[in-house]
Amino acid sequence: MSLDTTATGKTHMTDVTQAVHHHADQARNASRVLARADRDWKDLALRRIAERLDSNRAAILAANAKDLEAGRNNGTSDALLDRLKLTDDRIDGLIAALHELAGLPDPVGGFVRGETLPNGLRMRQISVPMGVVGAIYEARPNVTVDIAGLALKSGNAALLRGGSAALNSNQTLIAIIRDALESVSLPRDAVVSMDEYGREGAAAMMEARGKIDVLIPRGGRELIQRVVTTARVPVIETGEGNVHIFLDESADTEMAVDILLNAKTQRLSVCNTVETLLIDAKAQAGYAVLEALHNAGVRLHVDPRAAELAGSLPTLEAGEEDWANEYLDSDIAVKVVDGIDEAMEHIRRYSTGHTEAIITNNLARSERFIAEVDSAAVIVNASTRFTDGSQLGLGAEVGISTQKMHARGPMGLKELTTTKWIVQGDGHVRK
Q1: Which of 52, 68, 102, 132 could form a disulfide with 46 if both were Cys (CB 3.0 to 4.6 A apart)?
Q2: pLDDT at 224
């Protein structure tokens, strides 16, 4: 990044870096308080945040309305505006997620393994907080609450860069969260916004090795890859969702229609929405599914065989870019394949490793699909929309990891902890 020198001889970037480091140090101090907070204390804070969100919903919706208006004026797509939008129902969902988090076991201090060694040393491995968790994300004010709640319950402090598109929403939400923390005698700096420092602040977060323990990007391909390729801080990679559903020849038509409509249209702008449909050439449900998707307003991007299957339904010709595209809109790529082997080969070539699903009544093929498809989530006879922390009983999620390190798939409380070895002796010395 090029730096503009100021009259004082300092650089703007240096000033931003110093500010980010200061906030990270304050967050580190706050994390030490959280690390020794017991479950009751943390759960009280979560419930207090939920109460404050409820009582301040008018202010939240007013701030969000400003962001939505700015987004429309800037030509933001309908799909991205949907991500940005908060409603009473969505606030209710955030409140419910906080209460669910409060009801979950404390992940800190959990016993992983241990034993007494032959020499009498007593050893055990326990789960502990990571410390300071940084998150860089775009146009998702709900993520602000989710990450703050997960970080709090897992004993971590959070540095949040939520992006300019949601600036007013995030400022309001973080102020509410910090006030709620203070009201239960937890440090305000357990949750800190980096939004005022803009892109330079995000860059400084990526460089803050030793200040931030782990960085989690959440957003589109460009954001995620920028963080993964440039950050010096350890990164947990969350991935875009080029999600596939394979319609097996044995699939029940009614089930297939219900699943595809839910997986594609229940919410367009999220990463677990299906983007590619692979139809077995022998599947009896093929045309019914395409007709139902078309009737629901979905644009069908088809290969030649799928175009033939669609008959008189309006279609668009699919190009190479369609197979790799995360539309996040009312579009789906459709390909007809000759059986499960061709379907899995297509998935191996184009998948982002997020979620893949099979609709089938054949046990052997479902077992093959489970064993051979290498994605963070593999689903049989259900909507891909279930790849979600709240839907899987995690309370909420920081993101959906597509890497193969300790965190893979929806990242909840456990994924925000690491481990510590405790070794206790009675004057032992090594020979």
Answers
A1: 102
A2: 85
CA 400: distance to chain centroid?
4
| Measured CA distances, 243 to 62, 83, 278 (Å) | 34, 18, 11
Residue 144 has pLDDT above 80, yes or no: yes
* Predicted local distance difference test score (pLDDT) of residue 9: 38
Give long-range contacts, CB 8 A cutoff, 24+ apart: 51-55.
51/180, 52/176, 52/177, 52/179, 52/180, 53/91, 53/94, 53/95, 53/98, 53/145, 53/173, 53/176, 54/91, 54/95
Give the pLDDT score at 288.
97
CA distances 236 to 43, 257, 365, 411, Å, are 26, 35, 32, 10
The pTM of this model reads 0.81
The 10s digit of each residue's pLDDT in 258-273 is: 999 999 999 888 889 9
- pLDDT above 60 (res 10): no
10 Å Cβ neighbour count for 341? Answer: 11
pLDDT at res. 80: 83
Only one residue has tokens 């175009």, namely 307
